[in-house]
Structure formats: C-alpha cells, structure tokens
Amino acid sequence: MPLSRLATLSARFIPADSLRRKLIAIRLAESIGKGVFISGSVVYFTLHVGLSAGQVGLGLSAAGFSGLLSSIAFGMVADRMNRRRLLSILFVTLAVGFSLYSLVDNVIAFYVLVMCVGFVEYGTSPTTSALLGTLVPPEERVRLKAMMRSVFNIGFSLGIGVAAAAALSPRLLVMIPLTTAVLMIAAAVLVTRLPEGEAKPIPSGLRRFAAVRDLPFLGVIGVSTVLASHVTIVLVTLPLWALTRTSMPHFVVPLLLIFNTVFVILFQVRASKGAETVLGASRIARRSGYWLAAGCLTVAVTALNSNVILVSGAIIAAVLVLSVAEIMQSASAWGLGFGLAPEHAQGEYLGAFDLHVISQNIIGPAILSGIVIAFGFWGWVAIAAVVLVASALIAPAARRSERKLAASSPEPAELSTVSA
Predict the structure, then answer these.
(1) Residue 285 in contact with residue 201, Cβ under 8 Å?
(2) Cβ pair 177, 33 in contact under 8 A
(3) What is the pTM of this model?
C-alpha cells in the first residue's frame, strides 16, 4: 500500500492533537475489554462456572434491562459532578465487577453481579459523551464520535481474538473476565490524563428527569429506535433467516458480520460528514431509512428463490446495503443527540437518546425475528414499510424538538456553573 494511502487511513483513526488521541486510546482500551468479555462470556459462564445456556442468556438480558434506568441516571449525575472523575470511577467499578466474575460459582451470584455490572456499564456512554461535549467544540463532536466508533470496532475485533485464544484451554478461561478488568483499569488511568474541561452552566432550578418529560425529544428517540433496526437485523435477524429459511451455506453466515465490521471501520468517519447540525443529521437519518428499507427488501427476495448462488449474492448485497444504513444512522444519531441536548443537561439528554439503541437491543430480536420467521417475504416487506414511515417522520420530529429546545433555553441570569 502506498505511504500516502496508509497515512490517509491512519488519519481516520489517529487524530493529530493529543486530547483526541487520549480519547481514542480510552475507547480502544474499553472496546478491547468489551470484545474479550462479550465474545467469551457464554463460553466462560457455561464451561468454567457451569451455568446453563438459558441461565446465561437470562442474566445477560437482565443486564440489558438495567441500562434503561442507568443510562439516564448516570447522565444526570454527569451533569452535576466532575465528568472526568465520574468516568474514571465508573471504569474502576467495572474493573472490580469483572474481576469478581472469577469468583462466581452459582447462578444467584451471577444474576446479582451481571445486573450490577450492566447497570454501571451502561452509564459509561452518556458520561463519555457529556465529557466529550465539554472538551470538544460542537462542530467536531460528530466526527470524533465516528472515529471512536471505528476504533471501537477495531478494538472489539482484537478482543474477540483474545477471547478465542483464552478459550483454547479450560485453565485459560478465567483470563476472559480478568483481562477485561485490566483493560478497564487502563481506561480509568487514561481518563485521569484528560484535562478538566471548561465549567458548564446549569439552571439553578433544573427539573429532574427533564429529558423523559420532553415529549418532542422522546418523539425523536422513538423514531430513531425504528431506524436503528439495523442493529438487530445485522446481528440477529438476518443470520437467523439465512440459517433457517435459505439455502445459503452456513459457513458464510459468520463472514457477513466480519464484512459488516470492516465496512464500518473503513467508512464510518466519511459517513459522519454533514451530521454536525440537527438539520443535516435529520436528513442523513431519513436517507439511512431508505437504505435500511432497501436492505430488507433485498433479503425478502431470497424467500422467492432457492438457488444457492442467487440467494447468497442477495444476502451479501443486503449486508452491504444494511451496512450503509448503519453508518448513516449512527452518524445521524450523534448529530441529533448533541444538537437536541441542552448544554446544561447534555449527560441526561444523551443518556436518554442512548435508549433508542438499548431498547432496540432488548425488544428488537424477539419482534423482528418473530415477524420474518412467521411471515417470510411479507414480514420483510412489513419491516421495510415501517422503516419508510419512520424515515418520513424523523425530520419533522427533529424540527419540533429543536424548536422546543430553542424556546426553553434558560436565560443567562438563571445559570450557575459546575465543573466538567
């Protein structure tokens, strides 16, 4: 590869200034740790701890439900205390939690610990976003989030490799939670090297749970939940469909996720261009829905033909189209989240906006997979139709929320300050 091309690729993931490099390094440590644990957790808990697959699945689902509360709760805390200190505390707490997994020997202890760890883990996203909002100018936040997501996919892939190596021997399985714990400590140490950031103004009489009382903002979250269906489709619904309802060779199915991951790494930063404003982000969100609907309709075609080559080609094409939808919707979500969050309550609002992905992770697999398995071709068509409706609604919903934000912005005299 020419040096100029290599330099261009490196610039996508390695910022020129030290602050952004530190933020990227934190994301890398966190993502490797999560890659190790998420990819190796089922193997660890079934083979090392001795739990059943059903018990592990129930525990991990319970951890997901805990994020419905913690995402907003920690966002509110981040608005009221030093964000750098809070994020460091969260990573240290996670390190302790992952370390304790090595001592778990019964299902009750597993359920308690996995819910506690999940509760803390879902708090890192809004805290990180709030801290980023303090340290980085508004026009640069979406691009930096895109870089961090590309780096996350790189780190997550590395973590999968570490987990696979640990799974080679029963004696090494305990390294799965312990390695994750070490990486959380590394992330915590890196957070302490960030600057304090500028003081952020907050209203003296700020209402609690303002984000979930903001109906226009909740409307944007609801529509975004539909547009984020690509999460469930790529990870769960499409692989399940390919394995059970098509003639596609089974060995190709895991390769689809690899293809999707590489695509996101290469093109997420480029897809973030134009999403820096609410108007631009809503337009990109609308287009992401078109791509998502097209991907669903492409998969639907496989219900009409059993030819292996045609089916395989259609599914691979669908993954490409769905990957485009993914990077566009992710970029639009960052733009909408930052753009519609009041400066004095960024943590709370960004935590609430995270619910569009958290809820998709919880309810998406059962609903979307159930629809396509039960109704086949028409199931995919129905999903595409709902997505197109969401595409039409996202821009009006964003405009309404933006008007509400402008009308409710506090006057300077009403503000006090809190350290970031």
Answers:
(1) no
(2) no
(3) 0.89
Instruction: Bin 203: left if φ > 0, else alpha if -120 < ψ < 50, else beta.
Output: beta
How far, in Å, CA of 132 to CA of 392, rounded?
A: 31
Distance CA 44, CA 50 (A): 9
Q: Is 350 helix (H, G, I), strand (E, B) or coil?
A: helix
Distances (CA, A) of 255 to 84, 267, 312, 329: 38, 18, 12, 23
Tokens 């619904």 appear where?
A: 237
Domain 18-198, CATH among 2.40.50.140, 1.10.760.10, 3.90.650.10, 1.20.1250.20: 1.20.1250.20
Tell me if domain 18-198 and domain 210-407 are identical in fold.
yes
Question: What is the pLDDT confidence band of residue 106, given thresholds at 50, 70 and 90?
Answer: very high
Is residue 211 a contact partner of residue 337, using CB atoms and an 8 Å limit?
A: no
- Would you tell me the crossing angle of helices 53-78 and 18-43 to the nearest 10 degrees? 160
Residue 407 token pair: 């009308």
Whole-angstrom Cα distance, residue 386 to residue 400?
21
List beta partners, residue 202. Answer: 416
Structure tokens at 76: 């509110």
The pair of structure tokens assigned to 368 is 């979307």
The SS3 call for residue 418 is: strand
35-51 pLDDT tens trace: 999 889 888 999 989 99
Q: Please state the domain extents for the chain.
A: 18-198, 210-407
Query: What is the Rg, in whole angstroms, of the alpha carbon atoms belonging to the chain?
Result: 21
Q: 108, exposed or middle or buried, with CB in 10 Å at 0-12, 13-18, 19+?
A: exposed
Distance CA 147, CA 95 (A): 25
**Residue reference for tokens 């997550």:** 156
Q: What is the CATH number of domain 210-407?
A: 1.20.1250.20
